[in-house]
Amino acid sequence: MKATVSEPESWKRIIDIEVPEQEINSAFEKKLDDLKRNLKLPGFRAGKIPPALIKQRFGSSIRAEVIEELIQKYFKDACEQNNINPVSLPQVKNLKADEGEALTFSIETEVDPEIDIKDYNKLKIKTQPEEITESHIEESLKNLRERFAEFKDAGRPAQKGDYVKLEYLKVIIDGQERNDISFPKYPVELGAQNRIEDFDEGIFGHSVDETIDLKIKFPDDYADTQVAGKDGEFQIKILSVQQKVLPEINEEFLQKMGNFKSESDLREHIKQSLEQEALNRAKEEAYNQAIDTLIENNPFDVPPTRIEQAIDFYYNQTMQYQIPNAPAPSRDEIAEKFRDVALRAVKRQRIIDFIADKEKIKPTPEEVDNEIRRLAEMYNHPFEQLKQQFRKNGTTLRIREDIMERKTLDYLIGEYTPEKKD
Questions:
Q1: pTM higher than 0.70 for the full model?
Q2: From the CB of residue 291, how many other CB atoms can be counted at a distance below 10 Å?
Q3: In the chain, at which end, N or C, are there fewer CB atoms within 10 A of the end residue's CB?
Q4: Using CA atoms, how far apart are residues 352 and 348, in angstroms rounded to an integer?
Q5: What's the pLDDT at 48?
Q6: Angle, nearest 10°, between helix axes 263-297 and 134-147?
Q7: pLDDT digits (tens, 9 = 90+) for 228-264
Q8: At 326, is the secondary structure helix, strand, or coil?
Q9: Which are the contacts of 330, defined by CB distance < 8 A and separation ≥ 6?
């Protein structure tokens, strides 16, 4: 076999291969002998069918099979001999397989080009977490109380902040009565964000069992495009008016939140949680800044197949979480929207892999076990049983990759120092 490799692009390899005629003939004769031993034809004993008859009936299909196998074999051999690691399906071109002549063909494939990321250890990027103040703690505590709020009948006319349940008796849009617009099945908060101001103001001051006639103008950017910018007339009946009552911070509330002994203990817990969240956000921002800096300072090509694979991932994720009956985006639409994101994601992973390999950053068995133990506690699963399950289904490998990535990113922002090994 003769193989010549050319590199028209940093990410493309073209391999020109020539297979001698005698090798084709040898492979053909071997297949012919194998077929002769096993072939059954009426009027002939097994193994006694004349080779000329077999060639006459099956020669072209045998030769086609031989050519296909030789192409696969010598493409693999050429890749091994020339350290080519394909990332795309090979494309066979310029195939010449005439009888009595050598087999020649070209194969095009894509590869990850060699990269050399420079100055990754000179970034001087640090995390800058937001300082948590009393106002942050107060807001978080209020949100906790909101989650456990009770709704009680107001016993008075509706006002801003109340939750009302309504029934639409008549709906007219641009002069036409509509029966396809249903009333909310759950209470709505009057004056809440994204509510139509004229609608809510028309309810203020009215009580349960009252019937109200309202005239409104739907905003031009209203979510329902069928009524956006149009005039609407509503006849509605108020079914209930409720106010939200936040729970007091007492012993019962403290136990419900986690068996805290005092309000100060709860506040301290909230502060620690907010500080951890702020640190996580700051680290993520620092990670992104580090990667973006390295991408900008170390330009390199990415094979198109890698980008398409990333787009396929985004498309599959989008379809997995698609709302039922909602218009689904096409793959082309996802590609247009996420192509730059896909390119950055591929470059990000290549940079992380390069630095991890250069600095010999790897997860330790203890780190892997700790992550599995954390998941076991989260899902109330026996540790050893989950560990064995993860080994079998490949999850352990993903955990190792995640830890390696996190340690590498921490290294870039100065929060991890790899152990130096002799």
A1: yes
A2: 22
A3: C
A4: 6
A5: 66
A6: 110
A7: 899 999 999 999 999 999 999 999 999 999 889 999 9
A8: coil
A9: none
What residues are paired with 165 via a beta bridge? Answer: 240
Distance CA 302, CA 200 (A): 54
Separation CA 203–CA 190 (nearest Å): 8
**Rounded Cα gap, residues 75 and 77, in angstroms:** 5
Tokens of 335: 């590609």
For the record, the structure tokens of 204 come out as 């203020």
Amino acid at 87: V
Which has the closest alpha carbon to 272: 137, 378, 143, 135?
137
For residue 136 the two structure tokens come to: 């942050």
Quickly list DSSP for 247-313.
PPSSHHHHHHHH--SSHHHHHHHHHHHHHHHHHHHHHHHHHHHHHHHHHHHS-----HHHHHHHHHH
pLDDT at 38 over 70: no
**How distant, in Å, are the alpha carbons of 133, 273, 411 from that of 130?**
9, 13, 21
344-373: b (≥16 Cβ within 10 Å) or e:
bbbbbebbbbbbbeebebebeeebbeebbe
Instruction: Please list, in sequence order, all residues whose beta carbon lies within 8 angstroms of the beta carbon of residue 36, skipping any fewer than 6 positions away.
Output: 47, 49, 51, 54
Q: How far apart are CA 80 and CA 76, in angstroms?
A: 6
Alpha-carbon gap, residue 326 to 84, rounded angstroms: 45
Q: Among 117, 129, 130, 112, which Cα is nearest to 291's?
A: 117
208: Cβ contacts below 8 Å, ≥ 6 apart: 238, 239, 240, 241
Cα 283 off chain centre by: 20
Amino acid 400 reads: R
Bridge partners, 96 (sequence order) = 104
Residues 6+ apart with CB under 8 A from 378: none
Could you give phi then psi for residue 341, rounded to 5 degrees?
Answer: -65, -40
Beta-sheet strands, E only, within 32-184: 91-96, 103-110, 150-153, 163-173, 176-177
